């Protein structure tokens, strides 16, 4: 397919995602308002009200019910969508696992936000990473364009029969949800072709099934093993979908990870989410000063790109992982993932915990930590707090 | 299209909990000479284990009857006796 | 037969019959949404199969009305509005943990038939008190009897101004099935509250299930009624029970059940007074 030129719009992240959702044509949505996701819900309501999106929006009384409602809707066939953040994501946790365990294809956007107590409406990744074990594909956007792109790809990945799994698209609260950026959007007809009609349907009156019936221990273990295998298969499906998307849009998609200036790098910075943009700046500045540094962006958190990460770590003199979420009593969540895949390698891996509860992190903060790494001055774990 | 072996689902089956007749301690026995074919036992059997014969008399499916005794209680002519199962 | 024999229900448990009678009316095009409860177990497993001959969606404890809302929306999208979406939930799933989502679905007037089969405690976990356990009843968490009265759930749901609310009993199958039939013909949120005696939980002989259900109605403890578009109407034999002399004393209902065996005469009187007062309120409602 030739590269398809769509319109160029100026959109805030929440509206870019809403635009992608509109183009994916879900038939049932259930969304509960929560900062910083709410303006997406408002935009979706507006699309439906104007007839631009032919869907039912169930105005549920909680996030638990939002996930429950789209779960029920998805079983009957239609494409579905929800979005939430922070406390909302925690409140729907039971249903997040329920949907994953049942292997229901659907898409949820998470406008990442810190978790109370104390109250914080600002960005970090603690909500997003807390769903790592729920049998969901989890991808995280770097900028508004990326959030639009990933949302479209999420529907296709989710509904691929080789995957058949829910997909979570994370994008940083306020930093992306409320920031206006240039976004290239695809023509509707191209999206129609990119996301084939959904074929998943479990409610069939001629073939009545008990969906989610009790599984005895042997069977339960069998289903979990199948989910593990599907998650592994998802890696190649995600790459395939990204390659196809790149072909259509002409926008480089990279895959599960992206390596920036890291070919000859002695020192590697690892990050995920919106601050990867600042990391690019930090790396470039240090390169200008002759430091051989590079950046590894984690774009897909589940399935975790084990092979790519391990490969990227090899031969480095030092690695620093920037973490916006922490497992108290253990370590930075992304750091733990990276370390788990560095088994047997001698590369020292440091952690910088930063940006919690929206605490400002500037390129110079990142640059400083990275420079300290190159000079052997970075602690094993540093908190920017 | 969907590979049903991938996902936890159950299909309709008689005896989903096995031959539940083995649970029985007391066995309902119909005295057909007393039966008036009123169908109350069929209507109220909570397990759906009493069938109606072509001659309209009730017949208990002992493979699945759990022996609860509801049929004996609702029978207006006391035509169903609960007899201990002897092994 | 819509609900197949040989399932995991306890001997004397009315749930399989209650479901069979429901499905006989709603038919093949029914989706059952079932939150955690005894029925989750009765519905079999992925290997042995399920007794239901219609699609079932198993649900987390608090999620059933929301799941059903989603199913109803999808069926509308599929143009299959002739199908009936049924929530089949116990008293705990309805009146306690699932109460918010029940209220939400009722307020939105979702196109759902909600049936609460009320066995008056958390029976599946082994008889713990719920908000719908009656006054005086023993459970494993009310060893000397419950001190609070039963939450009046059908009336609370009716206060949501939904098109149809009814109570029903396994002992009055025709009344139950005609209410299901009427509910099926109405669009919007419909609610049937079905008293469902539990032999092990209520401590009575398994053969007495129907008798106990009948006594609940005859003593006036469980009035049979329906509220259609706000209009209250007693049904079946409850119609004559407004006259107290026609009602059996509640003691006749209590005496067969071990769960009430520790009630003092004062407590029995308190329950009798409660029932009599409820009937005075019912008398007022029938006048409207």
TrEMBL record, chain A:
Superkingdom, natural source: Archaea
User: Which chemical reaction does it catalyze?
Assistant: a 2-oxocarboxylate + 2 oxidized [2Fe-2S]-[ferredoxin] + CoA = an acyl-CoA + 2 reduced [2Fe-2S]-[ferredoxin] + CO2 + H(+)
The EC number(s) given in the record are 1.2.7.11
* Protein name as it appears in the record: 2-oxoacid oxidoreductase (ferredoxin)
Biological processes, Gene Ontology terms? response to oxidative stress
Q: Where is the Pyruvate:ferredoxin oxidoreductase core domain?
A: 265-366
Q: What does this protein do?
A: Catalyzes the coenzyme A-dependent oxidative decarboxylation of different 2-oxoacids such as 2-oxoglutarate, pyruvate and 2-oxobutyrate to form their CoA derivatives.
Q: Does the keyword Oxidoreductase apply?
A: yes
The organism's lineage is: Archaea, Thermoproteota, Thermoprotei, Sulfolobales, Sulfolobaceae
TrEMBL record, chain B:
Q: Which GO terms describe its molecular function?
A: 4 iron, 4 sulfur cluster binding; metal ion binding; oxidoreductase activity, acting on the aldehyde or oxo group of donors, iron-sulfur protein as acceptor
Entry keyword annotation includes RNA-binding:
no
Q: Where is the 4Fe-4S ferredoxin-type domain?
A: 26-55, 56-85
Q: Which residues cross the membrane?
A: none
Q: Which UniProt keyword terms apply here? A: 4Fe-4S, Electron transport, Iron, Iron-sulfur, Metal-binding, Pyruvate, Repeat, Transport
List, alphabetically, the InterPro entries matched: 4Fe4S_Fe-S-bd, 4Fe4S_Fe_S_CS, PorD_KorD
Question: Which co-factors does it depend on?
Answer: [4Fe-4S] cluster
Among the Pfam families in the record, one is Fer4_21
Q: What start-end ranges are recorded for coiled-coil regions in this protein? A: none
Instruction: State whether keyword Iron applies.
Output: yes
Protein name listed in UniProt: 4Fe-4S binding protein
Q: Which organism is it from?
A: Candidatus Aramenus sulfurataquae
Q: What is the lineage of its organism?
A: Archaea, Thermoproteota, Thermoprotei, Sulfolobales, Sulfolobaceae
Automatic annotation (TrEMBL), chain C:
Q: Which GO terms describe its molecular function?
A: 2-oxobutyrate synthase activity; 2-oxoglutarate synthase activity; pyruvate synthase activity; thiamine pyrophosphate binding
Any Pfam family from its record, for instance, is TPP_enzyme_C
Looking at the record, the residues that make up the Thiamine pyrophosphate enzyme TPP-binding domain are 56-193
Say which domain of life the source belongs to.
Archaea
Which reaction does this chain catalyze?
Answer: a 2-oxocarboxylate + 2 oxidized [2Fe-2S]-[ferredoxin] + CoA = an acyl-CoA + 2 reduced [2Fe-2S]-[ferredoxin] + CO2 + H(+)
Key words of the record: Oxidoreductase
What does it do?
Catalyzes the coenzyme A-dependent oxidative decarboxylation of different 2-oxoacids such as 2-oxoglutarate, pyruvate and 2-oxobutyrate to form their CoA derivatives.
Q: What name is this protein filed under?
A: 2-oxoacid oxidoreductase (ferredoxin)
């Amino acid at each position: 397919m030739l590269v398809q030129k769509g319109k160029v719009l100026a959109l805030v992240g929440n509206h870019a995602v809403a635009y992608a959702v509109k183009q994916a044509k879900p038939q049932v949505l259930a969304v509960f308002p929560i900062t910083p996701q709410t303006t997406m819900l408002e935009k979706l309501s507006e699309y439906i009200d104007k007839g631009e999106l032919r869907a039912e929006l169930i105005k549920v009384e909680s996030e638990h019910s939002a996930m429950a409602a789209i779960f029920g809707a998805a079983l009957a066939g239609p494409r579905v969508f929800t979005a939430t953040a922070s406390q909302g994501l925690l409140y729907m946790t039971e249903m997040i696992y329920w949907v994953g365990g049942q292997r229901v294809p659907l898409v949820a956007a998470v406008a990442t936000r810190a978790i109370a107590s104390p109250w914080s409406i600002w960005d970090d990744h603690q909500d997003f990473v807390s769903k790592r074990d729920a049998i969901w594909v989890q991808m995280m956007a770097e900028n508004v364009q990326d959030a639009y792109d990933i949302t479209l790809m999420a529907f296709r990945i989710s509904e691929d029969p080789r995957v058949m799994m829910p997909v979570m698209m994370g994008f940083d609260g306020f930093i992306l949800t409320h920031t206006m950026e240039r976004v290239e959007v695809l023509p509707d007809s191209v999206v129609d072709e990119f996301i084939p009609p959904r074929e998943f349907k479990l409610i069939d009156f001629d073939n009545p099934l008990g969906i989610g019936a009790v599984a005895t221990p042997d069977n339960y273990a069998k289903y979990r093993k199948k989910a593990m295998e599907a998650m592994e298969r998802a890696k190649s499906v995600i790459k395939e979908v990204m390659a196809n998307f790149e072909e259509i849009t002409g926008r480089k998609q990279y895959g599960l990870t992206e390596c920036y200036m890291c070919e000859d790098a002695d020192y590697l910075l690892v990050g995920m989410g919106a601050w990867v943009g600042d990391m690019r700046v930090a790396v470039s500045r240090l390169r200008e000063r002759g430091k051989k540094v590079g950046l590894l962006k984690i774009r897909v958190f589940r399935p975790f790109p084990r092979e790519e990460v391990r490969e990227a770590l090899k031969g480095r003199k030092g690695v620093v992982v920037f973490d916006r979420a922490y497992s108290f009593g253990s370590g930075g969540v992304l750091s733990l993932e990276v370390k788990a895949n560095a088994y047997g390698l001698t590369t020292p891996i440091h952690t910088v915990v930063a940006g919690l509860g929206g605490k400002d992190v500037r390129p110079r903060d990142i640059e400083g930590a990275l420079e300290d790494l190159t000079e052997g001055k970075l602690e094993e774990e540093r908190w920017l707090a | 299209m969907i590979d049903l072996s991938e996902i936890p689902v159950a299909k309709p089956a008689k005896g989903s909990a096995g031959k539940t007749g083995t649970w029985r301690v007391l066995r309902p026995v119909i005295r057909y000479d007393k039966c008036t074919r009123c169908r109350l036992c069929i209507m109220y059997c909570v397990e759906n284990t009493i069938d109606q014969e072509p001659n309209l008399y009730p017949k208990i499916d002992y493979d699945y009857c759990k022996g609860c005794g509801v049929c004996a209680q609702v029978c207006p002519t006391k035509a169903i006796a609960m007899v201990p199962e002897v092994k | 037969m819509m609900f197949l024999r040989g399932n995991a229900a306890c001997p004397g448990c009315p749930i399989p019959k209650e479901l069979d009678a429901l499905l006989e009316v709603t038919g093949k095009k029914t989706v059952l949404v079932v939150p955690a409860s005894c029925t989750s177990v009765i519905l079999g497993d992925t290997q042995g199969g399920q007794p239901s001959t219609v699609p079932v969606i198993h649900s987390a404890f608090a999620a059933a009305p929301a799941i059903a809302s989603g199913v109803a929306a999808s069926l509308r999208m599929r143009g299959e509005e002739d199908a009936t979406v049924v929530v089949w939930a116990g008293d705990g799933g309805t009146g306690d943990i699932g109460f918010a989502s029940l209220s939400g679905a009722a307020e939105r007037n979702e196109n759902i038939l909600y049936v609460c089969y009320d066995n008056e405690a958390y029976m599946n976990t082994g008889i713990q008190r719920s908000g719908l356990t009656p006054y005086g009843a023993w459970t494993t968490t009310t060893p000397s009897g419950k001190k609070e009265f039963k939450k009046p759930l059908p009336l609370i749901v009716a206060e949501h101004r939904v098109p149809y609310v009814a109570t029903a009993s396994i002992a009055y199958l025709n009344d139950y099935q005609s209410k299901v039939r009427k509910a099926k013909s109405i669009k919007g949120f419909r609610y049937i509250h079905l008293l469902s005696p539990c032999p092990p939980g209520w401590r009575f002989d398994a053969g007495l299930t129907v008798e106990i259900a009948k006594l609940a109605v005859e003593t006036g403890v469980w009035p049979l009624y329906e509220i259609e578009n706000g209009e209250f109407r007693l049904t079946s034999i409850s119609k004559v029970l407004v006259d107290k002399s026609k009602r059996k004393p509640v003691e006749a209902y209590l005496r067969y059940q071990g769960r009430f065996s520790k009630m003092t005469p004062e407590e029995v009187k308190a329950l009798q007074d409660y029932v009599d007062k409820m009937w005075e309120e019912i008398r007022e409602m029938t006048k409207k």
